[in-house]
Amino acid sequence: MQTRQNFTMKILNFMENSIVFLAIRQGLVSAAPLLLVGSFVLIFLSLPIDWYQGFLQNLLGGNIQAILQMIKEGCFDFLAIILLITISYRYARLKNIRAMRAISVPVVAVASYIAFLGMHKEGFAVSSFGVNGMFVAIVTAILSSMLFLKLRSLAFFRLRFHTAGTEADFVEALSSLLPALFTILSFAFANQCIVLLFGVVSIQELFTQSIVTMFQGLGRTLFSGLLFIFFVHFFWFFGMHGGNIMDAVSQNLFASGLQENIQNIAAGLPPTEILSKTFFDTLVLMGGCGTTLCLVLALLLFSKNRSLKTLGKLAFLPTGFNINELLVFGLPIVLNPSFLLPFLLLPLLLTVFSYAATIFGFVPLVTTAVDWTVPVLLSGYTATGSIAGSILQLVNIGIGLVVYYPFVRLYEKKRMIDFHKNYADLLDLWQRSSENGEFLSLLDRGDQIGSVAKMLATDLQYAIQNRELFMCYQMQFNVKNYCVGAESLLRWRHDLAGFIPPPLIIALAKEAGLQLELEKLVLQMVCQDLHKINDGRKEQFVVSVNVTTDFLIDPCFEKELAQAVNQNKVLPQVLWIEITEQAALSNADSTLRKLTRLKEKGHRLIIDDFGMGYTSLLYLQDSLLINCKTRRIFGKTGYNE
After folding, report:
1. Is the dihedral of CA 216, 202, 243, 88 positive or negative?
2. What is the pLDDT of residue 630?
3. Whole-structure pTM over 0.70, yes or no?
4. Per-residue pLDDT tens for 401-444?
């Protein structure tokens, strides 16, 4: 069992850590805000309540409905183009292409996609820019990016043009001319080959025609039903809208099943057809393709990962109305090998189980058409005209939870392994850059290290807002071994990474624009602890707090310090301010005046790591005037020895 699990993890690691899969996953995640907006708008548009639909149509003369429709179109009708741009850009960044140079990659990808679709030909559908064209868009994004970047790296395809005073952007654009031309030409040629060989407008039409031909003569049997469900989910997994691709089969083969049952009832005869489009919508595809309502519930009930639980909460409402784009593209399920098996197999299992329940008479046949957005339980009762339909849905959900549970845990375990590896790489890179005195921008990186840094920055913001950081205190003793105070130390225990090094916390906060919030929180926490320690004590306990140079020179520093001291009723004399040598020896008059005011209010000022840099003996000898000022501010006992 352990051997099989290790083998599975190796396969998943190989697939998910390849640049292609990383680019697709990051591109899908980048489009998540649009999917979230579109999903909620689709709920408001499709809520299957007659009085609500009438109200919406008449609200402000139908203008509200028109606005919602335009928002939905903006989010979904050009989703293929959006994914084309995000995936190709992410691919370029993962190949370590600078941000400015990477912009040309999605530009070429869009042109290649349009050439591959053959827009000028009769029969072209604008729906190719929406969910119907996602698979072709994903493939085009990757292949066009690969080809364009490869050609651009070859000296043969680079035009050499330079004149003194020419803008660098123009020279860069000109050097991409031939690679862009040959890339777009390749996709146009591929489209023409498809047209000549198969007589279709595009590859999407070829897919549709092949599928319809496959189902001809199969009839409405359990086998054809299973084959239909398999292809719907197979296409969805690879980014194609399986429902739309299989719509011709659904309408020609399964939609008529419900009509025959309705006609039989009208003629006084018993219904005979088990399989129908409504059968699949209500008893199998609860929550949309992949029976993703079960996956959402599995995330909420069993996941220990905060981000997955948050995704489950966001996806719960739309998935309850069978709108699961947020989960399919946000988790994502598309091209995610961790969820391939349950996504494909669970709908097949539920089709067989629901078919058997109907055959043996536990559940009546489906005899009423139900809109696809009707939520679970209500849809089961309405479709079958019996509470047994709702009970079957509950049983199917239970089966789905059992099926999805081990894959959710496996996915979490793999995420944990990947995170620790990437976090170790981040720490190693950050430590090496710190030792060499190099500036390292973590959040601008497009690789896995950058992804981990962005995640930590997001978690840090959440931790600051929810006060998940805390202070530890290192005791300080005098020569008589008497504890005279303590130095405050910032600590953050991350759910996955454990304790994050404080300098890395500061670096992430500074880069993410959170430094001011973080240092304000530190002042508040230290003052609150000081109030608790000294409450009722005759001899006041002293605590020193580190203040970065950026916070010290910030105009609001004195105000925030005074507010923290006053709110917590702390004496300034017991709150010592520990600053760096750079801040202490600054020639800026404003900084010196600020330090003087702090001392006059009673704060003791301490230099951090005295003698390690600016205040070495050689520097003191060459900077006597500055150090005299500094000595007057700090006082004789103000140094941290």
Report:
1. positive
2. 39
3. yes
4. 999 999 999 998 888 888 899 999 999 998 888 888 777 888 88
- Counting Cβ atoms within 10 Å, is residue 49 exposed (0-12), middle (13-18) or buried (19+)? exposed
Q: Please state, in angstroms and rounded to a whole number, the distance separating the CA atoms of residues 222 and 292.
A: 22
Tell how strand 483-491 and strand 470-477 pair up: antiparallel
Q: What are the residues whose beta carbons fall under 8 Å from the beta carbon of 187, sequence distance 6 or more?
A: 112, 113, 115, 116, 140, 144
- Closest C-alpha to 530, from 473, 605, 467: 473
* Residue 271, token pair as written in the block: 């219904």
Q: How far apart are CA 179 and CA 121, in angstroms?
A: 26
Domains of the chain with bracketed CATH: 1-30+78-215 (no CATH), 220-440 (no CATH), 448-634 (3.20.20.450)
Q: pLDDT tens across 79-127, in order?
A: 889 999 999 999 998 887 877 778 889 999 999 999 888 777 676 777 7
Cα radius of gyration rounded to whole Å, the chain: 32
Residue with the two structure tokens 């072209």: 124
Q: Are 25 and 15 in contact (CB under 8 A)?
A: no
Please state whether the peptide bond connecting residue 555 to the residue before it is cis, i.e. omega within 30 degrees of 0: no
Region 198-203 average pLDDT: 76
